[in-house]
Amino acid sequence: MLADSVTGDVRLLESCLHNLLLQARISGQEVTEEMAMEVIRTVARVKPSLGLDEIISLVCRSFDLTLNQLASKSRRQELVVARNTAFFLLRKHTDLTLEQIGERFNRRHSTVIKGITSAENEMKRHSALGGQIEHAVNLIERSSKARG
Questions:
Q1: Which of 4, 59, 70, 83 is the most exposed place for a label (fewest CB within 10 A)?
Q2: Cα-based torsion angle of the residue sequence 14, 16, 20, 25 in order, rounded to the nearest 10 degrees
Q3: Residue 49: pLDDT above 70?
Q4: Global pTM?
Q5: Which pLDDT value is given to residue 74?
């Protein structure tokens, strides 16, 4: 039932399963269909905070780029950083798979993974580049909260 209801994101499905098992353990009961439905309803209430087009638009504005530049094959550092920031935000704020994110940018899912990891590592290191990524992420997330 969970797998049929929670599609597109294995991490979300895994989280639902863990929540269901935890709920059963805490209540001292066997897992029931009613418990599973409650977990599914909880997940259904959690909507992505930003959509794909909105994230791409905000990244383009934050990095002063056009959509064509962002999706281009160019490996110029400022484009790679902006692209990696978009990958990071899309993974964080949407339920898109890595493959779906990659398709939007004409990239493979492995490129998306590397980009997300690169952005996360730069932010953890607090490097100048990490600061730039973190600043853009914060601006974009604040912008979305102000509208929502």
A1: 4
A2: 50
A3: no
A4: 0.66
A5: 95
Answer yes or no: are the C-beta atoms of 1 and 40 closer than 8 Å: yes
- Cβ atoms of residues 89 and 135 within 8 Å: no
pLDDT at 47 exceeding the cut of 60: no
Are 48 and 8 a contacting pair, CB within 8 Å? Answer: no
Say if residues 108 and 102 touch (Cβ distance below 8 Å): yes
Q: Which two tokens stand for residue 29?
A: 């009961």
Nearest by Cα to 42 from 61, 15, 69, 64: 15
Pairwise CA distance, residues 76 & 60, whole Å: 15
For residue 21, the surrounding DSSP H or E stretch is helix 10-27
DSSP 8: S
Among the residues of 46-127, which ranges form H helices? 52-62, 67-71, 77-93, 98-104, 109-125
